[in-house]
User: Which sequence fits this backbone?
C-alpha cells in the first residue's frame, strides 16, 4: 500500500508539473509576435510578403503545435500572389523542447493554392524557395549571400485539397491540378548532401491539361536516395488521362529501385497500359509492360528497355537518351508482326470524300521533326499499313536539324524486294524517295497502293522522285524526278487490243470508237518497258515498248498526277498472226498501225481507237507503197532501156 501511495504521489506530481508547464507555455505564447517575426524573416531572406490573416493558435494535444489560418505568400520582389492556404498546422516533439531543440512531428496543410511559372527565359518562379536565389535578381542594396542547402526532417506530411497551376510561358500552355492529396511517413532530405528518405509515401492528383482530365497515384513503402545508392522497396504508380470519349491508364510496379538525388535505377518495371478511344476498331486495348529504367539527372541521360505484346504482335525496344533538352536519343525497335490497318478507322472511299469529310485538303505538318536528334534501327518481320503488305523490313534512321534520313531501307514485298532511301526535310517540307524494286508483282502492288487494277506482270521498277509543299494536293502538283518500269509476261487491263484489231476491217471508215475501260478485258504482253520524266506533277513517257507474238505497242503521253488524269496515245502494230491470235482478218492487217488513245481521270479512264487516223496512216502508207512500186518499175524500165541501147551500140 505504501508503494502505491508513493506511485500515486509521483503521478500527481508529474501531472502537476505538466499542468504548470502547459500553463506557462500558454502564458508565454505570443501569437501576434510570432506572426510578425515569421513575416519579417520571410521578407528579409526571400523578398516575399507573407500575410497571416488569423492569429496563430497553440495546441498541446496530441503534440505541441501551431496552427495558421488564412495565409498568403507573394511572388519574389512584388505583391502578386504566389500561394495561399486555408490552414496549416505544424506540430513538434515535446521532449526535444526540454533541450531547446525543435523537431517537426507533422506538417498538415489544407486548401493550398499555388501558381508555378516557367518563364520565357527558362527560370522558375520558385527557384529561390529551392535554395537558388541567384535565379531571380536580388535588390541592389541586398548583400550577396551564398545559397544555403535546404534541409527537411519531418515525421509526417499531410496535404489535402490542394490546387496547383503550372504555366509554361515558353510553350504557351497551362495545366491545372484541381485535387491533390499527399501523405507521408518520416521525411528526411538535405539538398547539400543530396540525400532523401521518405517512408510510406502516398500521392494522389487530379487535374486538367487543356480539354483533357488526368490523374496520378503513387504509393511507396519507402524511398531512399543518397550518394551511397541505398535501395528502396517496391513502388506502385498509376497515371491516367481522360477526355472526349478517350482514355489512357498506365499502371506500374517498380522494384529494385535504387539511386541517389542525381541518378535512379529501376531494375524491374512491370505493369500495363490501357487505352480506349471510340475511333479505334477494338475500342479498348491493354498492353502489358516489362522492362527496366535508368535515369541520370546530373548527366541528363537515360536508358530504357521495354517489351510488350500488342494483340498478335511482340514488340521490344531499347532507348538511350544522351541529352534531355534538346532531345538526343538512340533506339532499336524490333517487331515480329504488325497489322496497322486492323487498329485504324476506315478511310473515306475516295480522295474527294476525304476532303469533304475534313472540309479542306489534308495538311502536311512536319514540325515534330525539328529539334530532336535521333539515331535508330528498325526491324519488322511483317507489316501491313495502308493495305500494303511488307516483310523483312530493315531500316536505319537518322534525324538531325529537322531532316530525317531513312537509309538504307530494304524489305520484301509482292514476290520481290526493294532497297533504297527516304528523306524528309521539315525545314522546307520536302520529301525525296529513291527505291529499286526487283522481281515485284505489279498488279497486287498497284491494287493495294493506288487502288488501281490497270496492269499485270512481274519485273523491276526504279523510282527517284521528290516533292514539297504544305498539303497533299501541293505535293502531287510539284512532284518531280524520274521512274522506269520493265515487266514480263503480263497484261494491260481495260482493253483487248487483239479483239479490237479483229474488228478493225469491219469498222474502217467509221467514226472513232470510244469505250470505257473494262477490267474484264486485257491485252497480254511478253515484255513491257517504259521510262518517265516527271516535272510539276506530270510524268512524261516517250518510249513505251510492249511486245507480244501478235502485236507491238509503242506510244507517248502524259500522266498528270497532280490533276489525277492522263492523256496517252498508244500505237499498236500487227506483226504476226495465226488462228490463235488474230485470225484471217488480222493476217490481212499485218503491218498496220492502230492508234489507241487512253484518257480521262484515273477513276474513269476510257479508250478510243482512232480509226480515222488509222485509215489516214494506212492510205499514206499505201500511197508511199505505190510510189515505191512505180519508182521501182520506172527504174527497172530505165535499166532495161539502157541495156538495149548499150547492146545496139556494141552491135554497130
Assistant:
Amino acid at each position: 500500500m505504501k508503494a502505491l501511495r508513493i506511485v500515486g504521489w509521483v503521478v500527481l506530481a508529474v501531472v502537476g508539473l505538466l499542468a504548470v508547464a502547459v500553463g506557462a507555455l500558454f502564458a508565454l505564447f505570443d501569437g501576434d509576435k510570432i506572426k510578425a517575426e515569421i513575416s519579417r524573416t520571410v521578407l528579409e531572406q526571400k523578398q516575399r510578403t507573407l500575410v497571416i490573416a488569423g492569429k496563430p493558435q497553440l495546441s498541446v494535444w496530441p503534440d505541441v503545435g501551431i496552427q495558421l489560418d488564412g495565409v498568403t505568400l507573394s511572388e519574389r520582389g512584388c505583391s502578386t500572389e504566389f500561394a495561399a492556404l486555408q490552414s496549416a498546422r505544424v506540430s513538434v516533439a515535446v521532449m526535444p523542447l526540454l533541450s531547446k531543440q525543435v523537431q517537426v512531428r507533422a506538417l498538415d496543410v489544407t486548401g493550398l493554392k499555388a501558381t508555378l511559372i516557367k518563364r520565357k527565359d527558362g527560370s522558375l518562379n520558385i527557384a529561390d524557395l529551392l535554395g537558388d536565389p541567384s535565379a531571380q535578381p536580388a535588390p541592389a542594396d541586398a548583400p550577396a549571400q551564398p545559397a544555403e542547402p535546404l534541409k527537411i526532417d519531418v515525421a509526417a506530411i499531410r496535404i489535402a485539397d490542394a490546387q496547383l497551376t503550372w504555366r509554361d510561358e515558353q510553350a504557351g500552355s497551362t495545366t491545372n491540378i484541381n485535387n491533390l492529396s499527399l501523405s507521408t511517413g518520416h521525411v528526411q532530405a538535405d539538398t547539400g548532401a543530396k540525400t532523401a528518405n521518405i517512408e510510406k509515401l502516398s500521392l494522389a492528383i487530379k487535374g486538367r491539361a487543356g480539354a483533357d482530365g488526368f490523374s496520378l497515384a503513387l504509393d511507396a513503402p519507402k524511398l531512399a536516395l543518397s550518394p551511397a545508392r541505398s535501395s528502396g522497396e517496391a513502388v506502385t504508380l498509376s497515371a491516367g488521362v481522360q477526355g472526349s470519349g478517350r482514355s489512357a491508364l498506365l499502371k506500374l510496379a517498380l522494384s529494385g529501385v535504387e539511386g541517389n538525388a542525381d541518378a535512379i535505377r529501376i531494375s524491374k518495371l512491370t505493369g500495363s497500359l490501357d487505352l480506349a478511344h471510340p475511333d479505334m476498331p477494338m475500342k479498348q486495348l491493354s498492353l502489358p509492360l516489362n522492362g527496366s529504367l535508368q535515369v541520370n539527372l546530373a548527366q541528363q541521360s537515360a536508358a530504357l528497355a521495354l517489351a510488350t505484346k500488342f494483340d498478335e504482335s511482340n514488340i521490344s525496344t531499347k532507348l538511350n537518351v544522351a541529352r534531355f533538352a534538346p532531345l538526343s536519343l538512340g533506339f532499336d525497335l524490333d517487331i515480329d508482326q504488325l497489322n496497322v490497318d486492323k487498329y485504324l478507322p476506315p478511310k473515306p472511299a475516295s480522295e474527294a470524300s476525304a476532303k469533304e469529310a475534313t472540309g479542306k485538303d489534308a495538311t502536311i505538318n512536319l514540325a515534330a521533326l525539328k529539334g530532336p536528334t535521333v539515331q535508330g534501327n528498325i526491324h519488322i518481320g511483317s507489316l501491313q499499313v495502308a493495305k500494303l503488305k511488307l516483310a523483312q523490313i530493315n531500316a536505319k534512321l537518322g534525324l538531325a536539324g529537322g531532316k530525317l534520313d531513312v537509309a538504307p531501307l530494304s524489305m520484301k514485298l509482292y514476290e520481290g524486294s526493294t532497297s533504297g532511301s527516304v528523306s524528309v526535310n521539315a525545314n522546307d517540307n520536302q520529301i525525296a524517295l529513291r527505291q529499286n524494286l526487283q522481281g515485284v508483282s505489279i498488279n497486287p502492288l498497284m491494287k493495294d497502293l493506288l487502288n488501281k487494277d490497270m496492269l499485270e506482270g512481274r519485273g523491276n521498277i526504279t523510282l527517284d522522285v521528290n516533292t514539297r509543299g504544305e498539303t497533299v494536293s501541293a505535293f502531287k502538283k510539284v512532284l518531280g524526278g524520274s521512274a522506269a518500269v520493265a515487266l514480263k509476261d503480263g497484261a494491260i487491263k481495260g482493253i483487248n487490243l487483239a479483239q479490237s484489231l479483229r474488228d478493225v476491217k469491219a469498222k474502217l471508215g467509221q467514226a472513232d470508237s470510244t469505250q470505257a475501260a473494262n477490267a474484264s478485258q486485257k491485252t497480254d504482253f511478253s515484255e513491257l518497258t517504259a521510262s518517265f520524266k516527271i516535272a510539276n506533277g506530270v510524268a512524261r513517257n516517250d518510249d513505251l515498248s510492249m511486245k507480244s507474238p501478235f502485236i507491238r505497242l509503242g506510244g507517248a503521253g502524259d500522266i498528270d498526277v497532280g490533276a489525277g488524269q492522263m492523256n496517252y496515245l498508244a500505237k499498236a502494230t500487227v506483226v504476226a498472226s495465226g488462228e490463235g491470235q488474230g485470225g484471217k482478218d488480222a493476217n490481212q492487217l499485218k503491218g498496220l498501225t492502230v492508234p489507241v488513245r487512253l484518257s480521262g481521270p484515273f477513276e474513269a479512264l476510257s479508250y478510243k481507237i482512232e480509226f480515222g487516223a488509222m485509215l489516214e496512216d494506212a492510205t499514206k502508207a499505201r500511197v508511199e507503197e505505190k510510189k515505191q512500186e512505180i519508182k521501182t518499175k520506172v527504174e527497172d524500165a530505165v535499166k532495161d532501156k539502157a541495156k538495149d541501147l548499150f547492146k545496139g551500140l556494141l552491135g554497130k
In short: Confidence is low (pLDDT under 50) at residues 9-29, 578-584. Residues 82 and 266 are 36 Å apart (CA to CA).
